[in-house]
Amino acid sequence: MFKNKKKLASSTTDTLVGAGTEMEGALKSQAGIRIEGVFKGEIETRGDVVVGASGVARSNVVARDMTIAGKVYGDVVTKGRLTILPGGQLHGNLSAGVLVVQEGGQLNGVSHMGEAKAAAPVDTAAPERDKAEKKARQAG
After folding, report:
1. Backbone dihedral angles phi then psi of residue 131, each to the nearest 5 degrees
2. How far apart are CA 106 and CA 11, in angstroms?
3. Model's pTM, two decimal places?
4. Taking phi first (over 0 means left), then psi (-120 to 50 degrees means alpha), and beta for anything else, what does residue 114 get?
5. What's the CA gap between 102 and 115, in Å, rounded?
6. Burial of 3 by CB count in 10 Å (0-12 exposed, 13-18 middle, 19+ buried)?
7. Which domain does 103 fall in, by range?
8. What is the pLDDT of residues 78-115, one digit of tens each?
9. How many domains does the chain have?
């Protein structure tokens, strides 16, 4: 009975950012986090992170597993599984052991699968730089 207490504790949701709530800052936890409102800042947990359908996270996230049904703007690193549900959106880079994007889910960023490590940054200036170089060649 007591053998699974540690495992059970890390799979429960101890922190909830409820619908209608906006929070900003650094959130560190040993257990699960669920976001149904809006959170801006860094998220780090040994447990799981769930961004519900009404949730928005403008955050870099480090977690064991993560499920996205809402919107996440930032980089995600999971040691286990990242699941993007229908209607879920990730706008950022990711590093995960397992990636599941269900039909209707969106991933806009660079993905790395395998051993968890920080995802590579995306050069967002490249398309504009390419256009400027092309225009300069045509004018010159």
Report:
1. -65, -45
2. 25
3. 0.73
4. left
5. 22
6. exposed
7. 5-139
8. 999 999 999 999 999 999 999 999 999 999 999 998 76
9. 1
